[in-house]
Amino acid sequence: MKRALSLVIAFSLLSAACVKEDDPPDLPPAGSMTVDLAAVEAAPLVAKGEPNTQTIVPVQYENFAQAWVRVKVLQLFAVGVIVVPGTAIALALSQEPTESNGVWTWTVTVNSATAELDVSAGLASGWDVDLYVTDPQQSLDRYLWVEGDSNLDVTEGTWTLHDPELTGNDEALAIEWSYTTDTDRSLAYVVRNSEIPESGDSITFTVAGTTASVTYVDADDPSVMAEISWDTTTGAGQITVPGFNGGAAACWDELFENADCP
Asked: Model confidence over 115-168: pLDDT tens digits?
């Protein structure tokens, strides 16, 4: 689902949620799907072992390189799987909705296909959120692309992303999120795609003030857990992972070069 989409986002309010009938519901924040990796993406290519797999990482960057190979998994989610629905939410936040027969509709244009996001409030506990996509080029007719839920305050919830190219179970990625501000939020991803080796792996992204952190767990060996954190202003950070640096924290500075840990 990497093609850009033209989205029609419809919200259906069906119950006794604490919302005035003439007030539209709050949309889930864009930060419920998207991540900000700018501080570490700014590292030199050579520190990240790029631009190709033959690139040799100089020894002075090895601490950061150990972190980047794991953070890159999160980057692939952000750039690939979740970029379009995340963009759709961000665009919808700036639009005025229309209402007809209890259905609130936000319309945003990303490109060529059509999607509808239905939000219903069944119980006082929160909202149910379903995003359907119609794309003749992919023979999709109201395909359930994303389903989710949130509390009434829209400060925490879940998403499940589906992939029409998967056979059998089409769940590709699950997300649990909480969001107060861009500097107080977390997203926990679990790979649901059973057709790839990473199935079951989890990665959690958290921001608290100016500190971002990532925890990566390999489903095949949960003991191999990587814990990574960095300063969102300077990019300096650290990684702790079994099998590297004797299992002790390994740090890098604002130039992404190895440094003594505080």
From this structure: 666 766 555 578 878 777 777 777 888 888 888 899 989 999 999 999 888 888
What pTM was estimated for this model as a whole? 0.84
Kind and range of the H or E run holding 212: strand 211-217
Which residues are CB-neighbours of 40 under 8 A, at least 6 positions away? Answer: 64, 67, 68, 71, 230, 235, 237
Nearest alpha-carbon partner for 115 in 149, 73, 85: 85
Q: What is the largest CA-CA distance in the chain?
A: 64
Cα→Cα distances 138→2, 82, 85, 114, 192, Å: 12, 18, 17, 12, 22
Residues in the chain: 262
Sheet strand arrangement including 103-109: 6-12, 103-109, 98-100
- Could you tell me the CA-to-CA distances from 203 to 114, 176, 181, 216 in Å, in that order? 30, 11, 20, 4
Q: What number of helices (H) and strands (E) belong to the chain?
A: 3, 15
